[in-house]
Each structure stands twice: as structure tokens, then as C-alpha cells.
Amino acid sequence: MGKKKQSVIEPSNLDPGWVKTGDKSWVATLQEDPKTGDLILPLPDEVMASNGFEIGDILKWKDNKDGSFSITKKASEEKQWVLVEAVSTFRTRYMVEVPVGIDEQGNDKAKWALDTVVMGEAKEFSQEHLGEQIVSHRVVSKKEALALCDVDNDYTGEWDKETKMKNFFTTWEEQNGND
User: Where are the domains of the chain?
Assistant: First the structure.
């Protein structure tokens, strides 16, 4: 007959059974799930806050080989949104017909073509995209990014956040071919 696995769980009057032993160290009393027998380590708000943990984080356990364990947030899973602002540059050409000669102010009438272009009255002859120049970048929260999406793309106001993100946000997975 096999031996029944025993877990020593000492009752604690502390809720949820944590005793602080240092700035970022505690001794905890494990709880047992009555249905499965699994051991549970509830993390109180103070432990979560002092370690920078949030609900949904993936935590990594390390056996310190001295009867203690360390818990850290799995850093490789952390991601952030970065707003990158860039200016696209185009070389645009216009072909504008003007009279030959000098005007009353002594300027070459060829300069009249410049006025026609600036006034938006010239037809585009050709254009070439010369590239983008990054002018700034900053880390933003997902909430800030979605709010900015609504400002910059006001026609998407009725879209849900998943649709906005699918159309306007570039995920880490997409960049690495895992979409």
C-alpha cells in the first residue's frame, strides 16, 4: 500500500498567514484547497505592491536550497507600448506654365510657378517617398494609447478596443512572426 502524501500546514491567526521578516521578505503559511488538496499561497496586497506584482503576472519560483523560496515576476513576458512619432518626407514635382520675362518688381516670372504651387492650384506631376524621420518616442499605457487612437482616428469611436488594436497597434508577436 502506498503512503499518503502529507503536507504540514500550521494554522495561523494572521490573515492570510503572512509574517513580515524584512523589507521584501515574509514567512507564509500555505492554505490547502479542500477539494483538490493543492497547496495555495495567497499573495496579500502588501506583497504584491512591494514586488511590483499585478494580477495576471506570470511569477517564477526559485528554490533557494535552504528551505526558502523566492518569487519574482517573469521579466521576459513584460511588454510595454511605445508611441513613436515620425515625419514622412516626399519629394513632389509640379509642372507649371508661366509667361517668360521679368515682372514690374524686377522678378523673374518663373517664380510665379512657386505661388501657384503654394496656393494649391498646381497639378501634381510626380512624387517619391524619401522615408520617415523619427522625431520622438515615449512609453504610454494601453489606456493612453487607446485614448490617443480615438483622438487621432475619430471615425473609430464606436469600435471596440480589440478592433482598434488589431488595426492600429503593432504587437510584439506580429514583429516576430507569431501573429
Answer: 18-76, 81-169
Amino acid letter at 7? S
Q: Which of 40, 38, 21, 141 is nearest to 29 (CA)?
A: 40
Per DSSP, the chain holds a count of helices (H) and strands (E) of: 5, 8
Task: Indicate whether this model's pTM tops 0.90.
Answer: no
C-alpha pair distances (Å), 21 with each of 27, 47, 92, 125, 169: 7, 12, 69, 75, 44
Place of cell 517564477: 60
Q: Is the dihedral of CA 155, 160, 161, 162 positive or negative?
A: negative
CB atoms within 10 A of CB 149: 19
- The runs of H, that is alpha helices, within 123-179 are 142-152, 161-168, 172-175
d(CA 158, CA 152) in angstroms, rounded, equals: 14
Of the candidates 19, 66, 17, the one whose C-alpha atom is nearest the C-alpha of residue 40 is 17
In the prediction, which pLDDT does 173 show?
82
pLDDT in tens, 34-76: 888 888 888 777 778 878 888 777 788 888 898 788 888 776 5
